Amino acid sequence: xxxxxxxxxxxxxxxxxxxxxxxxxPATLELIARLHKASKDDVQRAVDSAExxxxxxxxxxxxxxxxxxxxxxxxxxxxxxxxxxxxxxEMGKVLKEARGDVQEAIDITYYAAGEGRRLLxxxxxxxxxxxxxxxxxxxxxxxxxxxxxxxxxAIPAWKIMPALISGNTLxxxxxxxxxxxSIELVKILTEAGLPRGVLNLVMGEGSTVGGAIVxxxxxxxxxxxxxLETGKxxxxxxxxxxxxxxxxxxxKNPIIVMDDADMGMAIDGVLWGAxxxxxxxxxxxxxxxxxxxxxxxxxxxxxxxxxxxxxxNGLDENVDIGPVINNTQLQKIAxxxxxxxxxxxxxxxxGRIIKPLPGHFIEPALFSDVTPDMRIAREEIFGPVVxxxxxxxxxxxxxxxxxxxxxxxxxxxxxxxxxxxxxxxxIEAGITYINAPTIGSEIHLPFGGVKSTGNGTREAGxxxxxxxxxxxxxxxxxSGKLQKAQIDVE
Length: 490
Ligand code: UN1
What we know:
By secondary structure, the chain is α/β, with parallel strands linked by helices. It is built from 14 helices and 22 strands.
């Protein structure tokens, strides 16, 4: 079994406390790796090393920083299959999805590398003669990145690549359930030529290691994807030092199915949106709001199709649904199944923990007769559980869609163009899909949500650069005399 150390100041170094933690395959429960756990001192060393590296890295021309990213992207491409297999063995998602996860990392790496020749600011006329106005982008400084386990390489890459191309230096903590892909990503970037200290990897629990990152005064920005509870804590802590924070938190994403929809397509969409990644996406569809006329037939057909999904080890190419990440999550999902029953929803399919498979498996679950006030219709479960909710018309469907505290992704299935535009206008979410499920974002568009899903920032797309840069406004006066804005108006 492999043991992995921390990566600080360009060296793989053991934890100063000597503490380690274990990494298991969720499908087989095999122990696959032992990882060094960072102490507070280790985090401080990582921050110091990032601080030392900042001057040289931020002064390296962005197109030259990009050459390292282009090289890393090509290496990721060459190793795509191997990395996908490693991911399935650690995180559990089925192989074709793991390949997609690596592809997303490849895409953002190329995209961020391309930004090395843009990093656009703006130029605009001055109100005074012989004066030139522009904005330039500057890196923020030492940035802390904290990532979740559900996209073990895509989400780290979403954050690392734009942060690097913008000239920041980093202290990065991946989720303790899935550190292996992050270790590979750090190795690839190092081999591609990233200078020492620019990217430091610390591992361990969120409460200690993540906490030490967030509280460190030298860290000027934190980018976090994870739970609402942790996000709120980070925002509060960061306020003390006026740190920049970007948060991608939970979702309770609805798919609205109108009675004019193509039903077969909507069912395909629900199966993929709700049960892909075993429902463990922030964008997973967990509420399916169906117009009442078609609800009975829709429910019947959805049950039939869900029954056909094959559960098992994601390395088997025939499997549709892999395991849940760990026992805590498995028990949390099982508890929500009980809560749903107690609240009076009808469990029409699945929801049982599967034994005697050794891993953390649960059957995809469908609840009917769910009302919007029930906890299973409001709280993020992060598992393969769908609540079917009845709506009379589009207005009611949208009202239900908006009745939760989250607002990440959303979807509507309809053939009616008016319905589609109304949904775009009225659904409170960062993302709305028309005739496609709630998952499947592309890296060159902004990703993020409204309400409690975040704090207004967006990842990926051109907004990825905004997330990791400061704007400087420059006024260049070449008139040779004092000119006064707002005063010299004649
Ligand atoms: C997440 O839901 O946790 O849209 C991230 C998707 C992926 C990213 C999802 N591109 O499903």
